[in-house]
Amino acid sequence: MKRFALIAGLLMGGGPRASSQDGFIVQFDSVQNWYPAGGASVRQKEWGYLVFGHQISDDSTGQTRCMAYRLASDGQLIDRVVWNNGSAYDFYSGFIDPIADVGDSLHVSAVIQYNGPAPMVWLKMHDIAGVLVRADTLVVLDQADSLLMGMRATRTTSGGGFVVSGWRMVGSVLAKALLLKVDSSSNVEWLQEFAFPDDIAEATSVAQYPDGGYVLTGWCSSIEDRSFLIRTDSLGDQLWRRRYGDDAYSDGAVRVDADGYIYTWSEHKDQSWPFERYQVMLRKWGPFGNLIWDTRTHYFQWARARDFEILPDHSFITCGGRSTYGFIAKYSAEGDSLWSRDLHYISILADDDLLDDEPTSDGCFVLTGNVVQTSGDPS
Questions:
Q1: Exposed e or buried b per residue across 181-205, where buried means at least 16 C-beta atoms within 10 angstroms of its C-beta
Q2: Model pLDDT, residue 379
Q3: pLDDT tens profile 18-52
Q4: Residues 6+ apart with CB under 8 A from 327
Q5: 232: β partners
């Protein structure tokens, strides 16, 4: 069973690994009712926290729904908003922090509607409480063409529109990484695909570059250097591409600073290492794809990179999972590892995964993700 957990904590102490303090951990059994779920994005509000995620619906359809959960400042559940309840379709908005913010009052995501006769991609907009206020059709998927798409992350653009990363597959052709540009009126301006010969590819994260172009990162199914970083111009045409990570699949993220430097949070695995013993890797790249530095930590721990943020002092706060634990880790502006904290909700064997980390107004961090309980499951 997968349990949906929101985790927040004030991280204190000087050791390299310690428990979080003066915070809370909340899981949603009261509304989840043993149906699998997962948190994807979390935002601080004046009244507490807003969590966006997914859950197998409890409306008897067995379909996946997108949902929003409101929490008080102490982590207590206020209420839950379910979108498309009763529909015969599944809905999914992405994986690692897929929600784009328009100020503090509007939250937007590209949502795929699938497993039905009329699959399509929506652009859905939600107010400060997570209530759905607008839904625009972006793409209708023609099943006669065997067209499949997946949305992974949505971000705002300087022109008031949005850019979406993901993947697209037509017929028997292997899936390609996708970049979709939408204007402020929800009109699709262009769609670009990025192919990797003989490989499946998926773009998991995207950010706008200061010149109006974009950078996207993701993974492909190659036997080596499975992570990729691509920079494009403002029309989505590729300027350059880099491959890295050796034998690690990466579901990590990408960020860009005001000076045009690019940062990726991903995974690395040497092909000689046994099993799935990845390490996480934070990298700084120049505007032309030149590597400036990289930092690799959490060796031989089956580490998984998820989300990260650049803090005002140019340091980095990152999150992910390692073995059966979730973790949050901080690095200096130069990439030096400062500390790592393990976060574990269930005391028995379980896999914790943290998919979004956000700084809070009081200097702490709030995170969301899921727990996959693998033994002692009462359901």
A1: bbeeebebeebbbbebeebebbbbb
A2: 34
A3: 444 467 787 776 777 667 788 899 999 999 999 99
A4: 298, 303, 319, 320, 321, 340, 341, 342, 343, 354
A5: 214, 238
pLDDT digits (tens, 9 = 90+) for 249-305: 778 899 999 999 999 999 988 777 666 678 999 999 999 999 999 999 998 778 899
Cβ partners under 8 Å of residue 322, min gap 6: 280, 298, 301, 302, 303, 304, 342
Q: Which of 283, 293, 369 is nearest to 325 (CA)?
A: 369
Question: What amino acid is encoded at 237 in this protein?
Answer: D
CA 117 – CA 121 distance, rounded (Å): 13
Phi, psi dihedral angles at 100 (to 5 degrees): -100, 140
Instruction: Quickly count: other Cβ atoms within 10 Å of residue 169's Cβ.
Output: 18
The CA–CA distances, whole Å, from 323 to 182, 277, 316, 319 equal 38, 9, 22, 13
User: What is the pTM for the complete model shown?
Assistant: 0.91
Nearest one of 256, 265, 258 to 219, comparing CA atoms: 265
Place of tokens 């949305």: 151
Q: Which neighbouring-strand residues pair with 54? A: 38, 66
Question: b/e per residue, 333-366, with b = 16+ CB within 10 A?
Answer: eebebeebbbbbbbeeebbbbbbbbbeeeeebbb
End-to-end CA distance of the chain: 8
**Helix (H) / strand (E) containing 32:** helix 29-32
Which of 237, 194, 199 shows the shortest CA–CA distance to 217? Answer: 194
Phi-psi region of 275 (alpha: psi -120 to 50; beta: other; left: phi over 0): left
